[in-house]
Amino acid sequence: MKEGQCLCGAVTFRAECSTGINACHCIQCQRWTGGGPYLSVQVRNLEISGEERVLAYHASEWGERGVCGTCGSTLFWRMRGRDYSNVAVGLLNDQSGLRVTTEIFVDRRPDWMPPFEGAEQSTEAEEMAKMDAFLAGKKA
Ligand SMILES: [Zn+2]
Ligand SMILES: [Zn+2]
């Protein structure tokens, strides 16, 4: 279990975290973070305290983004119907032993930003195809 908190400390959490970091260069993440990518770890069994301070924003019908209503820290991104969330890696108290393993929406990465060496890469079209397959499975 790893622990973390937002900038002001109103929201703290514990969760089981992946050691791989995902870098998302999609336009929504760029705007959300104020200059992407959104760097996150996949977490399960997320226990949040201060949940009443979390503001949820739906940038799309399937996704939910949470921020701290007090300090504005980006907290998590999750998709309806999935049993995991993606939590911003910078919130973790201990970031040792982690590395960027996947980099998605690479065709949206701005020209001024270099790629992450050794990370698996996928484009927007590839990610949207995965999303469509997931949503089709949900409806079936
Ligand atoms: Zn906060
Ligand atoms: Zn994104």
Overview of this protein structure:
The protein has helices spanning 27-33, 124-139, and strands at 2-5, 12-24, 38-49, 54-57, 63-68, 74-79, 85-88, 99-104, 120-122. By secondary structure, it is of the alpha+beta class. The protein has a single domain, classed as Metal Binding Protein, Guanine Nucleotide Exchange Factor, Chain A (Beta Complex). A hairpin with a 5-residue loop joins β5 (63-68) and β6 (74-79). The protein is globular and about 35 Å long. Bound molecules: zinc ion (ZN) (2 copies). One zinc ion (ZN) binds next to α1.
List its salient traits.
140 residues, alpha+beta, Metal Binding Protein, Guanine Nucleotide Exchange Factor, Chain A, nine-stranded mixed sheet, 2 helices, 9 strands, 41% strand, globular, binds zinc ion
Which SSEs are present, and which pair or pack?
Elements: E1 2-5, E2 12-24, H1 27-33, E3 38-49, E4 54-57, E5 63-68, E6 74-79, E7 85-88, E8 99-104, E9 120-122, H2 124-139
Parallel strand pairs: 2-8, 8-9
Antiparallel strand pairs: 1-2, 2-3, 3-7, 4-5, 5-6, 6-7
The protein binds zinc ion (2 copies).
Mean pLDDT: 94
**Estimated share of beta-strand residues:** 35-45%
Q: Total helix count?
A: 2
- In the CATH hierarchy, the third-tier topology is known as Metal Binding Protein, Guanine Nucleotide Exchange Factor, Chain A
CATH classification, class level: Mainly Beta
* SSE string: EEHEEEEEEEH
Low-confidence stretches: none
> What kind of sheet is the major sheet?
9 strands, mixed
Overall geometry: globular
Small-molecule binders: zinc ion
| Rg, Å, rounded | 15 Å
The number of E-state strands comes to: 9
Q: Based on the structure given, which CATH architecture is correct?
A: Beta Complex
Query: Which structural class fits the helix and strand makeup?
Result: alpha+beta
> What is the helix fraction of residues, given as a range?
10-25%
Distance between the termini: 34 Å
Number of domains: 1
